[in-house]
Amino acid sequence: MAEADLIKLYSGRILELAADIPRTGALDAPQARVTRRSPLCGSNITVDVCVADGRITDFAQDVRACALGQAAASVLGANVIGRTRPEIAQARDALAAMLTEDGPAPAAPFDALEVLIPARSFQNRHKSILLALEATAEAMAQAERAACAYAAATRSISTRAPTAKPVTPMQVRAGSWSAEK
User: Fold this and answer.
1) How confident is the model at residue 181 (pLDDT cuts 50, 70, 90)?
2) How large is the greatest C-alpha to C-alpha distance in the chain, in angstroms?
3) Global pTM?
4) How far apart are CA 16 and CA 41, in angstroms?
5) Most-buried pick from 22, 48, 58, 80 (CB within 10 A)?
6) Better-predicted residue by pLDDT, 144 or 85
7) Which run of H or E residues covers position 9?
8) What are phi and psi of 52, to 5 degrees?
9) CA-CA-CA-CA torsion for 147, 54, 95, 107, nearest 10 degrees?
10) How many CB atoms neighbour CB 97 within 10 A?
């Protein structure tokens, strides 16, 4: 790896994105929380999501990654609100193809991920770059499963005696509720 390649990889734009990551921290009451880690470099990203009607309504991320992973998380954080799980999955898949198959950059609103094209030849960085989108797609799937379980639980409760106590989404996710109670 030549020094010029490293300089090109860590461009000023990547460093700007890495220094200004939107929506950092954690949500007080996320519907789902997912942590993903790249064992090769140790990058770690935790995302929290709230979803309504299939769209992300709130989002937070705790990013402990290299500048490339931070840049990808920055682009995600700036564009994630209002997105659906298929849109997140499409962006993730397009980013993976951009890195591994010389595909085009993801479509708008995630087209700023094109800044990571120089990372194509650095396979050891690909996992870190994909972490934020992978964690977000997984968190959305978890939130949707929890919403389905909650809906099933509330339907079951409505058929029970009127004195039944309400079930919260946290009880459903934690598995501390069953229809037999």
Assistant:
1) very low
2) 72
3) 0.79
4) 21
5) 80
6) 85
7) helix 3-9
8) -140, 135
9) 180
10) 14
